[in-house]
Amino acid sequence: MTVHDMHIEFNQxxxxxxxNKTLKYLPQEIDWxxxxxxxxxxxxxxxxxxxxxxxxxxxxxxSQLDSDAIRTIIVSSYDLIPYIDQDGRRYRCFLPPDxxxxxxDWSYTTLLCGTSSQIIDYTMYITALRQDxxxxxxxxxxxxxxxxxxxxxxxxxxxxxxxxxxxxxxxIRDIDFIRKFISLQGKWYWERFDNxxxxxxYINATTNPQGAxxxxxxxxxxxxxxxxxxxxxxKSHAGTGKYFDNRLSATxxxxxxxxxxxxxxxxxxxxxxxSNGVLYVYNDSxxxxxxxxxxxxxxxxxxxxxxxxxxxxxxxFHQNICDLAVEYTxxxxxxxxxxxQKKADNDSRVML
Length: 352
Prior knowledge:
The chain folds into 2 domains: 1-117 and 240-352, no CATH class; 124-234. 25% of the residues lie in helices and 35% in strands. It has helices at 3-13, 15-18, 27-45, 64-69, 176-186, 251-258, 318-333, 336-349, and strands at 47-50, 56-61, 74-80, 83-84, 90-94, 99-111, 119-130, 145-149, 152-156, 189-193, 196-206, 216-219, 222-224, 227-237, 242-248, 270-275, 278-282, 287-298. The two termini are 29 Å apart. The mean pLDDT is 87.
């Protein structure tokens, strides 16, 4: 089902709208609802992982059926560099820009056995580029938009899917879907990385600045290069190591686990923690960690009629998203049954 088909399904399912009994929804309004329901559909597949006491341990698990429903956005294996944290008791791993939900994580560990480990020094280079709005006085807005950051260049409409008839937006505020498309295409962080927060900025973080191009954003012929830059040193341990699954645990359990001999993080059973967009893996003086891997659910590209970007989820589940969108909208329009379904959905089904 293409984005055009989803719009038709949406309008035909809302008969009082399709029959002109009330004002029609604008394409970008339908896109907003479809994306909201796509996110909700993905959330409904996620089940929080529980520890032995039945309390959330952090991270999520997915049943076979639910995994099949979102199979197109599951990244089965992704390598992370474990940087030595300042306190020396744990490693910190930066999650990828398209990260959404963590499914599993593992580490490659090396026993020291009285030997010293090799330290690798890194410098993390940060470049943040501001996304400006169009300066045109009248529509069409965002007909042409380019972002160059790090070693990547994303261009609209050049990078849009084949067959698009993109001609810009009618409202200067309609930049959200464009921004999501650009950040995913460029593999850039948006507004946040590590402890940095730059509102309305794309963020490129790399330990290899070789070949980096001068950053700029060009919107409808007006070019800007408003950037923020910084850098800081990081260290990691070299080695190949042996594979072991991590024990992902909730933040409030970490202290108790590491203070108990049989539960603390060890060479064979490492404790990990997900906090503030960073995956922490705990160690002690007997071993080092040379690599960390994760399996995760990534952010899908936005559904947009203007950009001609379709739903990335498997075709057989597109109707479910349309049904959720219609149910949600009927509740908004005042339909009693639709309102009750929408309220029940908000009260229970989307709670994690």
